[in-house]
């Protein structure tokens, strides 16, 4: 095989000329060229596609036949491509439409890929394809130069602020690519880490851009969704590579990403706009697409760190729950396999770490908006608890093997750290429930549902906290309003608890060798935990626009939450007001809209009793934060002790 150095000067010259020519065409389009001028730009951009496509054919097998094919293709394009332009020469036409600019952007991306394919054909004497053409540094050199010029010139011409930020952060995400040196494993690994980090930053930026403009009538919702789709395709491409060994999906994502970048830099943000607080269907779509991207990213990081083995068989053999014949158990095997694949990523350390970074930053931004010291401290404890309690202790601490024996370490109750074994049943499992019940009795269920659980990190950052409006805007969310426990809440919570206790008993009997009960080779409690917390919880979270915020609290899906809410409701915690008459005079009743679990009867209780006590109140404190009079206070064991010591 011919060495690259033999053609270095030739390749460098072609790439430089390609960059200069493409940049000039982009300049003409961005400047506003229309009519015959725009048709000529399309003609020239298309000529690069035809030229490199034909050259790749010739250089793959240099002979008179391929030479004739190359010459024929170029000649045909030169002649027939000019005919429609010549017919329009003396006419005033307007051909610059959104779709013609899109065609131009597509030809820019494809021509560069075909240039890479031509270089591949020269070196390998094989006919590749445009996707293979993406897998070299020549393609990325030209791509980055074009995208950089497009961005700078667009900013100079006056670019929408949000779009400018999106393009600024997406440029390095697309430019730092593992396929630049696809055969260098160390390079691939390093760039994946960099790419994932930059994509997390970009995702946070998108969240914050939407949140910052939430009070506007319209936002750049479609532009945000487009960029998230590009990121999803990119991460899906890397995941696909680790499973199949092929970069083709990632290569396609690069072409799609460059096309989007050039098109948006020229055309500006999408004219399709909306408001995420008013359009539940769009918000659901955005959250779903973002979650899919995050799922792929978590899976990729699991491959990079060795949690998963590469290749399809390696991946399936790495699944903690295992993989069975999809047709087994009358087709239930397929459902199990889906749960196993899905939950193996969502339950992994690197997925939780990645999600924690994103949601943690949104929580940090939220802290800056808080007024009350109590709420700021709680939010800081929440972030710290996620880092220590959810990530460090079970995954990186030298004490990790001993955690099952330690009370309060079964952070989500039964199944958190494994099966129900007699070895740690008393100290670890029952000890966790006892300690947590005492803490909830003393401080309220906020000690779990607003601090140590992973849910508050997900729900209480800037963007996701604002989604509590769907408690009132969504059909199902409205049914959860007020602190009254609905009958269907009891049905759901009871069903969850019956299943959990049943599986816990079976797990205990299985672990002690009394019975041999497994679910597709897994301990019953371990399986059920994976279903509830690695799958169902994320379904509930993604469905905020339809179910409302904190559905785990308001609808009874979380056994650990309902347990602590029960003892919190029986205990000391409650909300009190300094002066009930202030609530009578208050017209805005802002505490009602601020409550993320929809306790709309707050004012009535404050006026009648001077306090509010309900097992549904998990002490987030948004009501106290929103009160314009600073009238709402927290009451727990600290307040009780102060009263006794007076």
Automatic annotation (TrEMBL):
The lineage of its organism: Archaea, Thermoproteota, Thermoprotei, Sulfolobales, Sulfolobaceae. Keywords: 4Fe-4S, Electron transport, Iron, Iron-sulfur, Membrane, Metal-binding, Transmembrane, Transmembrane helix, Transport. GO terms for cellular component: plasma membrane. Signal peptide: none annotated. One of its GO terms (molecular function) is metal ion binding. This is 4Fe-4S ferredoxin iron-sulfur binding domain-containing protein. Pfam families: Fer4_7. The chain crosses the membrane at residues 6-29, 36-57, 69-87, 99-122, 137-156, 163-180, 192-211, 223-242, 286-309, 377-400, 420-443, 488-509, 529-553. Residues 573-605, 608-637 form the 4Fe-4S ferredoxin-type domain. The keyword 4Fe-4S applies.
């Amino acid at each position: 095989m011919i060495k690259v150095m033999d053609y270095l000067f030739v390749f460098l010259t072609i790439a430089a000329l390609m960059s200069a020519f493409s940049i000039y065409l982009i300049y003409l389009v961005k400047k506003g060229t229309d009519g015959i001028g725009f048709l000529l730009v399309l003609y020239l951009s298309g000529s690069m596609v035809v030229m490199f496509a034909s050259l790749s054919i010739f250089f793959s097998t240099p002979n008179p036949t391929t030479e004739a094919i190359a010459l024929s293709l170029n000649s045909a394009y030169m002649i027939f491509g000019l005919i429609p332009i010549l017919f329009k020469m003396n006419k005033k036409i307007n051909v610059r439409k959104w779709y013609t600019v899109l065609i131009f952007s597509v030809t820019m991306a494809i021509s560069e890929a075909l240039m890479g394919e031509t270089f591949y054909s020269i070196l390998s004497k094989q006919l590749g394809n445009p996707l293979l053409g993406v897998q070299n540094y020549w393609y990325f050199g030209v791509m980055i130069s074009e995208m950089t010029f497009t961005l700078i010139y667009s900013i100079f011409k006056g670019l929408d602020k949000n779009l400018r930020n999106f393009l600024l952060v997406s440029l390095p995400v697309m430019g730092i690519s593992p396929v630049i040196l696809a055969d260098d494993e160390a390079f691939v690994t390093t760039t994946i880490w960099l790419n994932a980090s930059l994509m997390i930053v970009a995702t946070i930026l998108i969240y914050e851009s939407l949140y910052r403009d939430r009070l506007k009538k319209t936002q750049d919702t479609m532009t945000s969704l487009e960029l998230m789709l590009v990121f999803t395709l990119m991460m899906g491409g890397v995941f696909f590579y680790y499973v199949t060994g092929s970069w083709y999906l990632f290569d396609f994502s690069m072409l799609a990403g460059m096309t989007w970048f050039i098109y948006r830099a020229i055309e500006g943000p999408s004219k399709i706009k909306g408001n995420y607080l008013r359009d539940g269907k769009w918000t659901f779509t955005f959250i779903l697409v973002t979650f899919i991207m995050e799922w792929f990213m978590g899976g990729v990081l699991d491959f990079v760190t060795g949690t998963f083995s590469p290749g399809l068989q390696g991946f399936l053999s790495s699944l903690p729950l295992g993989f069975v014949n999809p047709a087994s158990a009358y087709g239930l095997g397929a459902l199990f396999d889906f749960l196993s694949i899905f939950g193996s990523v969502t339950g992994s350390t690197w997925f939780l770490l990645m999600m924690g970074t994103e949601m943690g930053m949104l929580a940090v931004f939220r802290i800056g908006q808080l007024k009350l010291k109590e709420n700021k401290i709680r939010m800081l404890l929440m972030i710290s608890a996620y880092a220590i309690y959810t990530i460090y202790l079970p995954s990186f601490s030298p004490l990790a093997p001993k955690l099952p024996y330690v009370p309060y370490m079964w952070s989500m109750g039964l199944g958190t750290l494994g099966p129900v074994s007699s070895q740690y049943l008393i100290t670890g499992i029952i000890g966790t429930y006892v300690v947590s019940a005492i803490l909830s009795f003393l401080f309220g269920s906020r000690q779990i549902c607003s601090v140590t659980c992973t849910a508050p990190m997900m729900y209480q950052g800037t963007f996701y906290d604002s989604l509590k409006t769907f408690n009132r805007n969504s059909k199902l969310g409205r049914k959860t309003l007020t602190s009254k426990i609905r009958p269907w809440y009891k049905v759901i919570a009871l069903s969850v608890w019956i299943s959990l206790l049943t599986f816990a008993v079976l797990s205990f009997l299985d672990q002690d060798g009394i019975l041999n009960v497994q679910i597709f080779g897994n301990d019953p409690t371990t399986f059920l935990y994976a279903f509830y917390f690695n799958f169902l919880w994320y379904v509930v979270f993604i469905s905020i626009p339809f179910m409302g915020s904190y559905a785990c609290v308001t609808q009874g899906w979380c056994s650990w939450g309902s347990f602590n809410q029960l003892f919190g409701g029986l205990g000391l915690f409650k909300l009190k007001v300094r002066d009930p008459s202030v609530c009578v005079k208050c017209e805005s009743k802002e505490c009602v809209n601020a409550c993320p679990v929809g306790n709309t009867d707050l004012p009535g209780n404050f006026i009648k009793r001077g306090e509010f006590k309900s097992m549904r109140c998990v002490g987030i404190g948004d009501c106290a934060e929103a009160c314009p009079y600073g009238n709402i206070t927290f009451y727990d064991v600290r307040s009780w002790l102060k009263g006794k010591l007076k």
